[in-house]
Amino acid sequence: MDRIRKYDNTKFIKASDKEGLKDAAMHLRNGEVVGFPTETVYGLGANALDKDAVEKIYEAKGRPGDNPLIVHIHDKSQIDDLVSEITDNARKLIDAFMPGPITVIMRKDPKIPSCVTAGLDTVGIRMPVHKVANEFLKLCDCPVAAPSANLSGSPSPTKASHVYNDMNGYIYAIVDGGDSDFGLESTVVDATGEVPVVLRPGAVTKAQIEEVCGIGSGEHTNVDKGETPKAPGMKYRHYAPSAQVEVIDLPDNTDIDMEGELSEEQMKALFEIGKPYIMKTKELIAKDPFSRIGIFCGEEVKDLFDRLNDNVLSSHVEFYVYGRAGDCMAASHHLFDGLRTLDVQDVALILAPGFAGDGIETAYMNRLLKAAGKKGDDTKSSSFARKREKITFGSDSMVTLSVLFVCKNNRTLSAAAEGIFRRMITGEAPYCLNDDRDTEAEIYCESAGVFATDGENADSKMIKAVKDLGIDISFHKTTRALASVYDRNDLIITIKDEQAMDILKAFPDLEGKVYSMSSFLASKGLVIKDDKGRVISLAIPDPEGENELTYDHTAKALEAWLKIMFPYILKELGVMRI
Q1: How many angstroms separate the CA atoms of 84 and 60, rounded?
Q2: Helix, strand or coil for residue 338?
Q3: Over 390-431, what HEC string results?
Q4: Phi and psi of 34, rounded to 5°?
Q5: Exposed / middle / buried, residue 283 (Cβ in 10 Å: 0-12, 13-18, 19+)
Q6: Domain ranges, residue 260
Q7: What pLDDT shows up at residue 220?
Q8: String of b and e for 338-364 (b: at least 16 CB within 10 Å)?
Q9: According to the model, what pLDDT value does residue 70 have?
Q10: Is 73 in the same domain as 199?
Q11: Which listed residue, of 145, 204, 331, 516, carries a Cα 20 to 30 Å from 77's Cα?
């Protein structure tokens, strides 16, 4: 189903904004779609009794029509009007777990439109325990059909910012209720028969269900070909980032006291936890020196990488640390945020730990294996561009960082590099610090020339060549590369090797801050080899005085190399995309 952008900007409503909540609830009741928080993940809600409103959910998500929705309520008394039968098992589950992270499937009342249930005669009912969700649903004064508030097939949203990034312009409003408590969707149980059947594992475990119902339970978490799923997440490849996801097996013992200096035995245990990640990362880099890998892991794994002090290895890796390696509850809580965060760093592969167990481990592995594409058909979501919008979600602090490009005269190469890089940093914003995600980062760039005369225009042929890339540098004025210019920048990249060497000879204290394009690539293990396997230096000749075709070729070469370098420059600056 095609997505149609209907709003210039989706309203963003804080939970404390009582009038805003009333406005969002009124619009939902009257046919609009609103994102709202729950204790599991954020939902994308519409009036469950309004067929046209429900269709807007499918449109906003790009969701297949044979994937049923869950109906959310604020009070158990609403259930009688929405279902035609409440079995003994259903009543026991409702009494024991509602409100809470469970969805109970029962026979539906005819008033529920078939588009809510994908044509099935059953409907899933859920009553969130989340305070803001309950308040909002009460204000809506109608049952609310709501799947997770993300693009169909992509990782579910556990923050309001996740919803905004996927849904801005496609829905009326988003209610910000903070981070979700559980981070995985609700347990879905089919209670229409004599035996309860778990269709989707979640925080309410199979063992808990069996204890409450007093009988054994079944499990049916995937569907056969041609079968219509009774619950979300059964048929299609769900929860998947753009990057491929691979499961890493953890050793049996992950309990290491990380305080103080580690003993030899503790170091061996630490190595066993991190070894699979390190070996896989090294294997990928050996095959492709331009590989970028995301690692969703415990703090022990990150600690081991840090202890290796391998600059090349670490430059290819982006980390999301969820807590201690063996803490499946923490991994579950952060899984979707981790997949989303790593995905926007443009990694090709995400490594994530597997967990064995019958409790929350079952729910975690269900989501992780589907994210890895082990089960389920692909949805259409991959065809939708995931454009991040720049919006601040409560950040109280900001740092600024700057990159300087240097060439000979600042009229050709460095002027073009500045324009190209500026478009990149603008297009990929916003950013935050790697080690403090609550601190936003603003990135700037400028350029200079070691023999430049201040105030001259850029080379007219270079202006034209860069304009053909969609970038305007006609306003550029040249700057002489001086100590004051170097001091105000955090990273200095020269176009040619000799320019970096000259700067370091004059200012040796800039060691570690000045690179040529070639030496920067080499420092990250991004080596270029000739047809005989010999390492060669990157050379982008100055086109000054040549024909327009040479300028065009130079501009395109600069753009291509800067695209390769971009994520590594961010890593060098200590920032990441959000």
Answers
A1: 30
A2: helix
A3: CCCCCCCEEEEEEEEEEECCCCCHHHHHHHHHHHHHHHHCCE
A4: -135, 135
A5: exposed
A6: 244-371
A7: 60
A8: bbbbbbbbbbebbbbbbbeeebbbbbb
A9: 97
A10: yes
A11: 204
Amino acid at 141: D
Q: Are residues 198 and 260 in the same domain?
A: no
Same structural domain for residues 136 and 17?
Answer: yes
Distances (CA, A) of 292 to 136, 295, 311, 315, 373: 42, 10, 14, 8, 20
Q: 187 — phi, psi (to 5°)?
A: -65, 135
Asked if residue 78 is part of any domain, the answer here is yes
Integer angstrom CA distances of residue 51 from 32, 78, 172, 309 = 12, 19, 17, 58
Q: Please check whether residues 401 and 367 belong to one and the same domain.
A: no
User: If we measure between CA atoms, which residue out of 88, 128, 124 comes closest to residue 106?
Assistant: 124
Query: Which residue in 331, 354, 382 sits closest to 153, CA to CA?
Result: 382
Q: Are 232 and 118 in contact (CB under 8 A)?
A: no
Residue 113 in any domain: the answer is yes
Which residue type sits at 96?
Answer: A
Based on the fold, state whether residues 316 and 446 are members of the same structural domain: no
Contact status, residue 535 vs residue 528, Cβ threshold 8 Å: yes
Quote the CA–CA distance of 249 and 383 in Å, as a whole number. 32
**Domain total in the chain:** 3
Q: Please compute, for residue 333, the number of CA atoms within 13 A of its CA located in the half-sphere on the CB side.
A: 14
Measured between alpha carbons, how far is 395 from 389 in angstroms, rounded to an integer?
A: 15
Q: What whole-number distance in Å separates Cα of residue 274 and Cα of residue 261?
A: 18
Answer for the pair 480, 454: CB distance below 8 angstroms, yes or no: yes
Same domain for 160 and 41: yes
The full DSSP string for 19-49 is HHHHHHHHHHHTT--EEE--SSS-EEEEETT
Domain final residue, candidates 371, 406, 424: 371
What distance in Å separates the CA atoms of residue 172 and residue 165, rounded to the nearest whole number?
14
How far is residue 241's CA from residue 58's CA, in Å, rounded to a whole number?
20
Specify the pLDDT at position 63. 74
Distances (CA, A) of 259 to 142, 266, 277, 367, 542: 53, 11, 22, 32, 54
- How many angstroms separate the most distant Cα atoms in the chain? 86
**In this structure, is residue 212 part of a structural domain?**
yes
* Predicted structure pTM score: 0.86
CA-closest candidate to residue 416, choices 541, 559, 538, 514: 559
Domain identity same for 291 and 408: no
Look up residue 476 and give its amino acid. H
- Report which residue type is found at 118: A
- Cα within 13 Å of Cα(42), Cβ side: 30
pLDDT for the residue 388: 47
Instruction: Extract the residue ranges of the chain whose pLDDT is less than 50.
Output: 375-390, 392
Give the pLDDT score at 56.
95
Q: DSSP assignment, residue 438?
A: E
